[in-house]
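Hi L.,

As promised, Cathepsin L:
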Amino acid sequence: MQEDCKRGKRKVEIGFPEVEERYSKTYENENEENFRMQVYINNSIYINEHNERYAKGQVSFELGMNHFGDLLPHEFKQRMLINFKSKGSISGKPVCASIILNSTTDLSKEWDWRDTKVVSPVKNQKGCQSCWAFAAVAALESHHYMKTKERVFLSEQNLVDCDNKSDGCKGGWADEAFRYVINNGGIATENNYPFEETDGLCRYKSELSSSVKVSDCRNLQPKDEQQLKIAIETVGPVTVAMYATNSFFRFYKSGVYYNKNCDRRPKGLLNHEALAVGFGTSDKGEDYWLVKNSWGYYWGDKGYFKIARNRKSHCGIADDSNYPIVEDYNE
């Protein structure tokens, strides 16, 4: 236990045996510290009990302690997941035009865009409910690289502050973010408009903009996993929405995530967005989607997760899928 005398708070270092990194948490007083440590202990017990079932082959994924270990379930939800709201623009029209893709060749059994360096590094939305902005930026960074072979890092904060169709750190949607970038004529670089983990006034200026050019966006057919597979392999990474209100997902570490409670979720409820970058089948024969998250490198499998594929759009993973159409700035 360390004392942080200057700030008058105690600092508790919560160790994670899986990695060398240690997360420091600072609490207001000793009572809060003791409460958080008990929450951490209870979550550790929960994780260990689940992993005993995993070791016996009773569940398909493993859990691991992480930086959410001192949070209660409702606190995690309030901090990390978007508030559900109706999709679509104010006019009721789809934000991105719908498309039905046709595959002219046989699709691969496995695909991973990370193998071609298309996917940018995992980022961390921290305590801002801005997964939608991180998913949109991740898609833009990937599609821009596919077009130009130029690696740029774009500003999530630009979207959080300036996309008035979304709600900043209270939630939003990736397709609305694409539409903002199109209408705005660009998006700032991360260096010019860094992430602040809070809502702010829009400070975008054209001189802050990146070289990324977005002409349009497309929405895949809802719940159609074959369309999602075609899009990932033939078009590129795709933003996906899902239902993530469950401690199983909060502490996901590895394996193929399948949670029967998702089948009992409120109809149409989606409260998290991420970027699908691949697909495949596990050694145990479990089909999965490979998805890049925005909860930091030390969450999940180095910031990624696998979720069940061909299981009726499990947790809504194929219910709302979009991708941007990015142009080559040399054209």
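The longest strand covers residues 272-281.

Thanks again for sending the construct details.

K.
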